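A favour, since you know our structure tokens better than I do. What I am after is a single protein written out in full by you. Could you add the entry underneath, on a fresh line?


***
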Amino acid sequence: MLRSLLLAAAFVAGAAPAFAQTIETQARQAYIVDMKTGTVLLEKNADEVMPPSSMSKMMTVHMLFEKLQKGEVKLTDEFPVSERAWRIQGSKMFVPLGSRVKVEDLIRGIVIQSGNDACVVVAEALAGSEEAFAEQMTKKGRELGLTKTVFKNASGWPHPEHVTTARELAIIARHTIEAFPEYYKYYAELNYTFNGIKQGNRNPLLYKPLGADGLKTGHTEAAGYGLTASVKRGERRIIMVVNGLPSMKARASETETLIDWAFREWENYSLFKNGETVQQAGVWLGDAKNVALQAGQDLEVTLPRRARQGMKVTAVFQEPIPAPIQKGQTVGKLVVAAPGVQTRELPLIAGDAVGQLGPAGRIGAAVSYLLFGQQK
């Protein structure tokens, strides 16, 4: 018999909200996601192809971080500055022609100073040419799950085929934070001086007590003003991508508003820990009458605070569960539903192994079921 057992629900006076609280934004593209649960808080044209401008530099840095982590490059290594790197226009860290620059300086030159010249230096050192490096960036993007992103250079310099989406920029950001905790710290630095020139980080959120610790701004005439940001408050971290804003001022004010909204209106709720027993279920023809049903992984959900009142967590499973049962075997599912939020399903697993009764025991159980309607 299929059982659907309601585990948690809040009963409130009046009707539950029909949809999640949302917010308007003047950005052409916007995407906000909770990093721990993967819940999307806001999306506006999130899969629309757009120019990433200097937000492209996150992938350039990602490629360099990967080389450092593998030990193929050291922070103290020095890369040569070509004439092409020296001559490139736009934002620069002002590397001297013919000089050699330490990798750690180049990281700061890209992350803090948004140096196009630093990007070319890195690209040429790692791949021989910027074009070859851009091909490697695109290939790495495919490995990370980016299906629409194409890189044509290392800096985000305008190119008609150099494109991405807000959702895919968030994937790069998330992977950078998760994969390179020892290097991600550079994104939070406020300023850096190189070649006698001090420049401040272009990320406006770093200068306010918002919890921001990265990542990268961007701007071109075609793209408008954009920002990929990560903000951590307490145990929660969100990643936000906006693009197509009309000015630096709008970028600063709009992103601050969106961040405050994301933390004010949404919350993470821990329901079950991995391996925690949810309930007991009857076993058919087993050497134990019951088996513990456990959460197959941590169950934490991100919900609008108002939707929390209408949240329901339901265990769905077939009962009795026929023996034999292996420990860790998936025997059902947990279904989490709330008004206006996408339903989530997680596995219910058997907490213990349950063997099957021998022939005599199975016959006795079958007779008992026929006579009394239940297994004795």
About this structure: Helices lie at 57-70, 83-87, 103-111, 116-127, 130-144, 166-179, 248-265, 359-372. The first helix runs from residue 57 to 70. The chain has eight helices and 18 strands. Residues 9-21 have pLDDT under 50 and may be disordered.
